[in-house]
Amino acid sequence: MKVGLFIPCYVDQFYPQVAVATLELLERHGCEVHYPLKQTCCGQPMVNSGFASMAGGCDKNFIANFSGYEYIVCPSGSCALHIKEHLHSAEEPNAAATIRERIYELTEFITDVLKLEGVKASFPHKVGLHVSCHGQRMLHLSSMSEKVEKPFSKAEALLSTVDGLELFRTSRADECCGFGGTFCVTEEAVSVSMGNTRIKEHLANGVHYITGGDMSCLMHLEGLLKRQKIDIKVIHLAEILNAQ
Prior knowledge:
InterPro entries: Cys_rich_dom (IPR004017). One of its GO terms (molecular function) is oxidoreductase activity. By secondary structure, this protein is of the alpha/beta class. The chain folds into two domains: 112 residues, no CATH class; 116 residues, Rossmann fold (3-Layer(aba) Sandwich), CATH 3.40.50. The protein contains 13 helices and eight strands. A four-stranded parallel β-sheet has the order 2-1-3-4, sandwiched between helices.
């Protein structure tokens, strides 16, 4: 199974350990993983800010780097969704369409393609799960409280198989943390308030870590935690699922 590993730019720059954990996790489960060295930002920040016309170079570069892979895997729901929804090319429409069909968020790939019901990992800590909006509402990685549907969570199902891990969900599990990409810059006060609301629930649960599938959301929460000197760490799902 030939996999192209798509690492978001902010993960590459600030959280490289997440990229390494993702690579090792996929290789441990039989994937032949390739990391295209010329990959850059997927263009999501520009598109989300209303400058989609300026993301053409990102689209062209993504197609050049990821064409030909059987699967493309990304440890970020929002970046995976951006490619799935917005990647296009007037010059190479077929290549763009093929990539849109072949890209997966990490837990989605593990669950739906590798079809693993669990992983061999050990993480003996109290962990709070943060559910990111893009993954939940657009990629359908978990159920939504406003819909009448059978509750499910691909991340929670995988975490439940990790030895020693005590998992805690918040009472308002699918509420946004306030990051929202450039929203946290343009609406700083609202963003901070939303993030602090999330943190209060995790504090009440007495967790040692907050995990999730989007390091961008976790980065936002991490900033709030550090500024308030709260002794809770953030950790990506890949790091836990790869912990030995």
